[in-house]
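Hey,
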Amino acid sequence: MEFSTEHIERHEQLTSLKEPSTDLYAHLQNKYNILHCEMIEYKKANYWEAQFNKFKSQEESLQAEINELKAKLRKREQQLFGTKSEKSTQKQDQLTPTAQANIKKNRGQQADSKGHGKRDYNNLPAIEKIVSLSDKNAICSCCRLQYEELNATENSEILEVINVKAYRRMIRRKM
């Protein structure tokens, strides 16, 4: 099989083109590898940047919460230990007794003042009930004799409202 000159020339042209194309292919392969490594590095950097931004935003939200809690704590401490509650006692200690008498008193019952006492319910009708010891409890445990009944009583009152009618119940326990 003989090749024509045309075939030989064509073969030489292809051979002459093959060398630069193999060099070009190797060069492109090298560039591809470099770009591929850069892309991987970029993805890693992107991942870590995203992680950093995530943790940064969490840190900012936690810092905001800490600041809010610190403000609430300062407010509570001011309410508990503020100077306002101490002013009145310090001022009164520094004043003379005549100046203290001229100070406007607080509302409500004052210290060292006499109260009103118990309310009188003598105007209510009374139902009297006499309670004696039972036969079982009216015997001396030592000599087994029955107790002698005394005229003295221990009195107590209970205010009751029955059918929207108030009365006093008088209880007299024999001793």
